[in-house]
């Protein structure tokens, strides 16, 4: 966590960021967030779109319909400055399930609007059913036995000195509301080729309100961290060192059971394939009891940056 920004303020900022404002019937607006990169973080757009869709379903408590899956396509990179508009289509409302389509767009300087993401989400009312689970949690160090990635980033930045560009330094050191703790390697540095698997614990840096809808949104937000980089591991290349050009193309997430985003969750990722300028990545999210909380799939553009 940051030395200068209190954890409660970081998390409060995240909650505010993911609270969308109703502008008209089935139209919502999400706040922008500046991070120094010029582009909107994809997890932010996914989480805001999910929040907007959920607002049209109702039932923010434990008795109402809650998201059980979402599927999103990133169309263009969003800009940091302008707010994002979310327009909802109510495709289906049934007793057990509801379905929503969302188009996220930003206004251009000439007044026209450009879509940056479309998302479909499905919601289900609480229901008992047959249960099984065949997804053992990987054997990794406990989060309390690991250093936070933020602490490691500060150490690397201090040692690197002038070797880091201002953009790289800003990316490494900007305060984050999510405490990530890498289990096996700093795969965002990726100093040498390794197997396409990674494991990180994550949780918010301060407690959250007891709102299951918010916890799902923040898990959606965090699910876009570290995932795309998994497909770069076998190639020994790193975005942090400026060796890759990449962007998420699509993102799918399935919620299997309720979970709190302010309690430690393990994100286990793997990449079964890359080629044709794309990388395929899969993720599983576990709670500390070893229960499977969510599953994730994402394909991203991944190209080696050409030397100047």
Automatic annotation (TrEMBL):
Span of domain Acyl-CoA thioesterase 2 C-terminal: 183-301
GO biological-process terms attached to the record: acyl-CoA metabolic process; fatty acid catabolic process
Keyword Lipid metabolism appears in the UniProt entry: yes
Superkingdom as given in the UniProt entry: Bacteria
Ranges where the Acyl-CoA thioesterase-like N-terminal HotDog domain occurs: 38-124
Keywords: Hydrolase, Lipid metabolism
Subunit annotation: Homotetramer.
Family, similarity comment: Belongs to the C/M/P thioester hydrolase family.
Name of this protein: Acyl-CoA thioesterase 2
Species: Erythrobacter litoralis (strain HTCC2594)
